[in-house]
């Protein structure tokens, strides 16, 4: 028997008149039945109640038959609260858990913005949301909308027009996803990438938008910022392997931030390798990567990280030594009538090899030009070791320098300063 004199506490605030809630809340029924019958004034405590008093009051209103308003902003707290109170079909048909799940499945998951907003709110109820599958289902819903049409995702009609003006921009979904914290963003992008239906370029654009939003104010004052470091390393781990997915300039910005934030050596090594594969797109400014570590040999701080630039140049030069692979054959409609001879295929491969060699030769000339420009910049550093300076001079092959004016100026500046 439940006593009518019953108080319930969800934290520091008491909630009275709990008796009407018992018909729909199995948890309260159990707690009441466990209380000694001799107790005249029964008090029930629900510590760490998800959503606190606000979410409990929403559940209470449902029990009292009062209209409640559920949206993407409060469905997670309401669902977690209903789960805590065990407001299931076993207690009463059409109970709150059932109704919230129906709304979640039919409305929230079908809306682009609603799915994102709901996913954001799971951060406050992380354990509950994971256990109830809310987080994973929101991620799957968002990813499926991106995958089904990566160039255009329809917004929910529940949002103002000014928020829908971007729906004609290719890949604009990256802007909306950039609102997510890095852990949820990473999980969402992993699902998007795993289906292999969204182009590497669009994935790269989305990562650029995200990094620009969250890392735009990186400075040496944030070198111990663990959250920024984790964010950067996560973005690096999501980079598509395709060479054209992101620009060399963007990779350079990531590497500069990685040096400032003290990112892992594996992240910095990956960025250096990727920059090296598309170094012909770089500028002198891209290579001016700040140094945040002391030279091991002289124990002095250099202005720029020359060591990583040497690594980048080595990766670039290694490309000319990589064996060519024959491109995959594309079956045409006339293939069944004509089979190419081995000699014809060999001729094609030799032509391709010649073209690639010529292209890479031109790239080396271009790279040599801005390497000499880079040497002019670092020659002003009084802490620049002679060995590092000339290592950069020698990494460029002689044939790639069409003139030596910039190199002579760089050497002259270095001798004057040092």
Automatic annotation (TrEMBL):
Pathway(s) annotated for this protein in UniProt: Protein modification; protein ubiquitination
Keywords from the named record: Ubl conjugation pathway
Xref: InterPro entries: NPH3/RPT2-like, NPH3_dom, SKP1/BTB/POZ_sf
NPH3 domain location: 171-418
Pfam family, any one: NPH3
Sequence similarity: Belongs to the NPH3 family.
Stated name of the protein: SKP1/BTB/POZ domain superfamily, NPH3 domain-containing protein
């Amino acid at each position: 028997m439940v006593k009518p004199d019953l108080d319930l506490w969800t934290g520091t605030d008491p909630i009275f008149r709990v008796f009407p809630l018992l018909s729909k809340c199995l948890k309260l029924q159990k707690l009441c039945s466990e209380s000694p019958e001799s107790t005249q004034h029964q008090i029930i405590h629900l510590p760490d109640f998800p959503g606190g008093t606000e979410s409990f009051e929403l559940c209470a209103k449902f029990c009292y038959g009062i209209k409640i308003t559920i949206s993407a902003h409060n469905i997670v707290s309401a669902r977690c609260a209903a789960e805590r109170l065990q407001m299931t079909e076993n207690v009463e048909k059409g109970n709150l858990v059932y109704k919230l799940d129906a709304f979640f499945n039919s409305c929230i998951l079908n809306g682009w913005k609603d799915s994102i907003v709901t996913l954001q709110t799971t951060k406050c109820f992380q354990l509950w949301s994971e256990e109830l599958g809310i987080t994973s289902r929101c991620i799957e819903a968002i990813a499926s909308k991106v995958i089904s049409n990566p160039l255009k995702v329809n917004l929910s009609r529940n949002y103002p027009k000014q928020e829908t003006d971007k729906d004609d921009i290719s890949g604009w979904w990256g802007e909306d996803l950039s609102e997510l914290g890095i852990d949820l963003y990473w999980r969402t992008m992993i699902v998007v990438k795993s289906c292999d239906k969204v182009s590497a370029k669009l994935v790269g654009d989305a990562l650029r938008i995200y990094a620009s939003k969250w890392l735009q104010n990186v400075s040496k004052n944030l070198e111990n910022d663990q959250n920024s470091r984790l964010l950067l390393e996560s973005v690096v781990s999501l980079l598509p392997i395709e060479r054209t997915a992101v620009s060399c300039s963007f990779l350079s910005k990531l590497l500069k931030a990685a040096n400032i934030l003290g990112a892992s050596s594996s992240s910095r090594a990956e960025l250096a390798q990727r920059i090296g594969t598309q170094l012909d797109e770089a500028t002198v400014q891209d290579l001016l990567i700040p140094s945040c570590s002391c030279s091991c040999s002289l124990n002095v701080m250099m202005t720029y990280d020359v060591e990583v630039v040497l690594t980048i140049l080595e990766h670039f030069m290694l490309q000319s030594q990589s064996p060519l692979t024959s491109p995959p054959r594309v079956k045409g409609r006339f293939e069944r009538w004509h089979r190419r001879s081995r000699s014809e295929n060999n001729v094609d491969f030799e032509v391709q090899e010649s073209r690639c060699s010529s292209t890479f030769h031109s790239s080396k000339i271009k790279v040599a030009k801005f390497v000499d420009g880079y040497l002019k910049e670092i020659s002003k550093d009084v802490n620049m070791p002679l060995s590092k300076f000339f290592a950069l001079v020698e990494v460029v092959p002689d044939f790639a320098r069409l003139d030596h004016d910039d190199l002579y100026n760089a050497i002259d500046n270095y001798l004057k300063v040092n």
